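Hey, can you fold this one?
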Amino acid sequence: MTTHIGSHADVDLSYRALATYVAEHAIGVAGSIREYYLVDHFDTHNETEWRTQIGWPIFDTAPPTRN
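Sure. Predicted structure:
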C-alpha cells in the first residue's frame, strides 16, 4: 500500500512506483487494486491536501506466527 499525496492528475506516478516495487519483489497476486480516499474534494478543494491510499494485492509476507 502507498499513499498518493495531491491531485489525481498525477496519481499514475504513485501507481507506477507501487507496481514497480511489487514486480521487482515478485510479491503480486491476482486481485483487485483498491483506492481509499482519505482526504478528497469532499473534504477540501485544496488538492495539495488530498490523500489517496492505493492497495495492491500481494501475498502475505509476514513470518508465520506460532500458536
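The two ends are 28 Å apart (CA to CA). Let me know if you want another pass with a different chain boundary.
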